[in-house]
């Protein structure tokens, strides 16, 4: 991730909201006063899924030979994605690393995303609550949900939610947007670094257009996989039954920050996506330049999930989208959450803080002051209910009004 020193917590939060996006460039770098060295590196754990299905995962290297990379001259656009799915069995299959080896090494050497010194966090030792390459449980076909992360943020930071949805019967595909995320690791250990920070309106337009094109290409490749062809560029072995597990007549999408922007814009241009969620991403390139979807709205189900700082009642781009959308809609506010509450940071940072004594203002900038366990449980509950209702036609009263089980969520009318 691209980290700039000397950015205050307040300024960083304002930047992330204004620019869409929890951009990595808006986050402060840890200094000698913001992290302590520990004798043994910290190895935080993600919460396990709560659904009845064990979870398997694999990755795909996808190359779009019909589209040049928007950031690097002379290269085809290539992506890395992870597929999380209900597994028939996990016996004999190893736990999946949270980060690829090169990304874990980079995270450590760069100071753990601005939160610690090199050597303080054992990123390479963290495991996802899923196993590698287990056979897929494809009985009945599974709805497919895509995930797009924030600008500069690895797809791995959406792992907890992806695994939860997979344990509830969905196939979840998480996408790294190459040359935004820093770095993306490809087969053989090749690392592709981010280009220059995306600062101008023109660059932000390019980024969102590239992300939407990435998502549509991934959908194309899932159709190839469903037809029985392996789309992996290296032809690596895929889990048994994975293609059969894909029900591409039922597709949803969600994303954090710029990924939420991507979800909304993808739905505007691609009718294959039936329902979407924006997790705290603005819908504007600048104060006077809204995304097309904010100017036109959507006619299909969409849910906004923000914080007290960003709802359709106080954010012009969200209000424009809300007023123009004719499909089913909700606006849920995680009132005491932070921008990165909608990522794995919500559960990772409290563990890091217990060992590294992260300053309170830094924690608040990232994840607010909400209780981490309640926040995670609420996000899982509302996302699952949303996709159950709109991809499976299952009634979910949780979406109809406030729930005492999730007191941190406010319905914004």
Could you explain how this protein is built, in words?
This protein has 413 residues and is an alpha/beta fold. It has one domain (9-411): Rossmann fold. It is built from 10 helices and 15 strands. It has helices at 9-19, 101-109, 159-167, 201-226, 258-269, 292-296, 316-324, 345-356, 360-367, 372-391, and strands at 55-68, 76-86, 95-97, 127-132, 142-148, 171-176, 184-186, 190-192, 246-256, 275-279, 284-286, 289-290, 302-307, 329-334, 409-411. The strands form 3 sheets. The protein has an 11-stranded mixed beta sheet with strand order 3-4-1-2-6-5-9-10-13-14-15. Strand 13 (302-307), helix 7 and strand 14 form a beta-alpha-beta unit. Helix 1 (9-19) packs parallel to helix 9 (360-367) and helix 4 (201-226) packs across helix 5. The model is unreliable at 1-36 (pLDDT under 50).
Could you outline the blueprint of secondary structure elements for this entry?
Blueprint (H helix, E strand, L loop, with lengths): L8 H11 L35 E14 L7 E11 L8 E3 L3 H9 L17 E6 L9 E7 L10 H9 L3 E6 L7 E3 L3 E3 L8 H26 L19 E11 L1 H12 L5 E5 L4 E3 L2 E2 L1 H5 L5 E6 L8 H9 L4 E6 L10 H12 L3 H8 L4 H20 L17 E3 L2
Parallel strand pairs: 1-4, 5-6, 5-9, 9-10, 10-13, 13-14
Antiparallel strand pairs: 1-2, 2-6, 3-4, 7-8, 11-12, 14-15
Tally of individual domains: 1
Architecture, CATH level 2? 3-Layer(aba) Sandwich
Radius of gyration: 20 Å
Distance between the termini: 36 Å
Query: Class by helix and strand content?
Result: alpha/beta
Low-confidence stretches: 1-36
The portion of residues forming beta strands comes to 15-25%
What is the helix tally?
Answer: 10
CATH superfamily: Alpha/Beta hydrolase fold, catalytic domain
Please report the first level of CATH classification, the CATH class: Alpha Beta
CATH fold-level name: Rossmann fold
Order of helices and strands: HEEEHEEHEEEHEHEEEHEHEHHHE
- Strand segment tally: 15
Shape: globular
Task: Give the integer mean of the pLDDT values.
Answer: 91
């Amino acid at each position: 991730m691209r980290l700039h020193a000397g950015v205050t917590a307040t300024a960083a939060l304002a930047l992330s909201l204004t620019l869409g996006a929890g951009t990595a460039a808006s986050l402060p770098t840890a200094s000698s006063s913001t992290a302590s060295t520990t004798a043994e590196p910290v190895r935080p754990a993600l919460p396990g899924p709560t659904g009845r299905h064990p979870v398997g995962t694999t990755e795909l290297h996808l190359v779009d030979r019909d589209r040049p990379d928007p950031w690097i001259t002379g290269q085809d656009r290539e992506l890395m994605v992870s597929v999380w799915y209900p597994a028939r069995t996990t016996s004999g299959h190893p736990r999946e690393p949270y980060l690829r080896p090169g990304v874990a090494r980079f995270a450590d050497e760069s100071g753990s995303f601005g939160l610690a010194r090199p050597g303080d966090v054992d990123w390479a030792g963290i495991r996802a609550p899923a196993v590698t390459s287990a056979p897929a449980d494809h009985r009945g076909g599974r709805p497919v949900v895509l995930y797009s992360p924030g600008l500069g943020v690895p797809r791995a930071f959406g792992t907890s939610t992806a695994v939860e949805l997979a344990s509830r019967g969905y196939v979840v595909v998480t996408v790294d947007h190459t040359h935004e995320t820093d770095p993306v690791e490809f087969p053989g250990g090749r690392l592709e670094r981010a280009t220059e920070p995306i600062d101008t309106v023109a660059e932000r337009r390019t980024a969102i257009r590239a992300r939407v094109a990435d998502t549509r290409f991934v959908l194309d490749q899932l159709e190839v996989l469903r037809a029985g062809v392996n789309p992996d560029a290296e032809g690596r072995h895929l889990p048994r039954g994975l293609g059969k597990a894909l029900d591409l007549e039922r597709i949803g999408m969600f994303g954090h920050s710029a990924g939420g922007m991507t979800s909304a814009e993808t739905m505007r241009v691609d009718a294959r996506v039936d329902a979407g969620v924006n997790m705290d991403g603005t819908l504007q390139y600048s104060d006077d330049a809204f995304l097309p979807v904010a100017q036109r709205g959507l006619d299909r189900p969409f849910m906004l999930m923000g914080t007290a700082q960003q709802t359709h009642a106080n954010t012009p781009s969200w209000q424009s989208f809300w007023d123009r959308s004719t499909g089913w809609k909700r606006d849920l506010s995680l009132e005491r959450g932070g921008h990165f509450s909608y990522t794995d940071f919500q559960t990772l940072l409290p563990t890091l803080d217990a060992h590294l004594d992260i300053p309170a203002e830094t924690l608040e900038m990232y994840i607010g002051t909400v209780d981490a366990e309640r926040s995670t449980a609420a996000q899982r509950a509302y996302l699952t209910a949303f996709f159950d209702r709109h991809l499976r036609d299952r009634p979910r009263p949780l979406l109809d009004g406030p729930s005492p089980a999730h007191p941190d969520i406010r319905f914004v009318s």
